[in-house]
Amino acid sequence: MSKYFVAIDIGGTKISVCFFKKNIIAKKKQFKTSKFGPSNLTNVRNYLLTNNKDIAAIGIATTGLIHKKKWSTLNRNMIGSFDKFPIVNFFKKKFNTPIFAIGDTHAASLGELYYGNGKNLKDFFYITVSTGIGGSAVINKKILNSDKKIVGQIGHTVIKYNGKICGCGRNGCLEAYSSGTAIEKKINKKLKFNLKLKEIIKEHIKNKFVIKSLDEAALALSESIINIHNILGIKNFIIGGSVGLNNIVFKKVKFFVFKKNTDIKLIKAGLKNDAETYGCLAYSKFN
Ligand SMILES: [Zn+2]
Questions:
Q1: What is the pLDDT of residues 127-185, one digit of tens each?
Q2: Which range of residues forms the domain containing residue 282?
Q3: How far is the CA of 171 from the centre of ligand 1 (A)?
Q4: Percent of all residues in the chain with a pLDDT value above 70, rounded to a whole number
């Protein structure tokens, strides 16, 4: 019996564990992310230990930064504070298999490049809009890197000078305006709801304040997309993440981009929420 390649996607809301057989997800398990960072990793490791014999290799995609097999979170409000945490060693201690870790947006862009909607594109910029906002540039079918760090942190570029404080410490970052967390917080505060963004969009999409908030978030995103286009000349933008993939949000972003720039093409991530885990698979094969 051939063994599985296991891909772990650690995000701000959930952790996905996918067991790949060839290029197909044979088994998938999800965990809710807790604010208490270390318990997230222990839960996943314990779960994998019950499948120990069936695992050929493990690939990990995380939010934040991976540098020299160590993990640092950028927005510490989401998943706890990890500063140069030896995430690969944490799993290596219990598994005698090859293990690697890469950034989740890096992974998602690789997934789209090899298995998704980037397959036929030479250049594209991948943006994930979810709990946070990440980005990665693919130029000439290669991910743009600098000193092994992934370039493209669009979420932490300033969209409003002296604006709202962001979890990274800067003021006015795109993530502070257009991430799922930011939109949800704004609407819940004003309308005295205690709902997830998904529920807000489903149940209150006709509410004027909800429409206004989504428009503002989409407008900020569209301006950031045009900024990237103006700097790098990239025309194709692949949008992923649970918020970015939402039809209403996606259409609004497209509308605002098209109003100012008709060269830019916005495409939804073909692998949807599995872009990150497919990216780990691509990394294990092609890197
Ligand atoms: Zn920031």
A1: 999 989 999 999 999 999 876 666 899 999 999 999 999 988 999 999 999 999 999 99
A2: 4-106+274-286
A3: 7
A4: 97
Strand partners, 32: 14
Q: What is the pTM of this model?
A: 0.92
Cα of 168 from ligand 1 centre, angstroms = 4
102 and 128 belong to one structural domain: no
Considering the domain architecture, whether residues 130 and 260 belong to the same structural domain is answered as yes
CA of 254 to the centre of ligand 1 (A): 23
Quote the ligand 1 centre to 173 CA distance (angstroms).
Answer: 5
Q: What percent of the chain has pLDDT over 90?
A: 80
Give the distance (Å) from ligand 1 centre to CA of residue 160: 11
Measured in Å, residue 215 CA sits from the centre of ligand 1 at 20
Cα–Cα dist 8/29, whole Å: 10
Claim to verify: residue 79 and residue 144 sit in the same structural domain: no
- Kindly provide the b/e burial profile for residues 12-34, where b requires at least 16 CB atoms within 10 angstroms of the residue's own CB: bbbbbbbbbeeeebeeeeebebe
Rg (CA), the chain: 18
Q: How close is the Cα of 103 to the center of ligand 1, in Å? A: 16
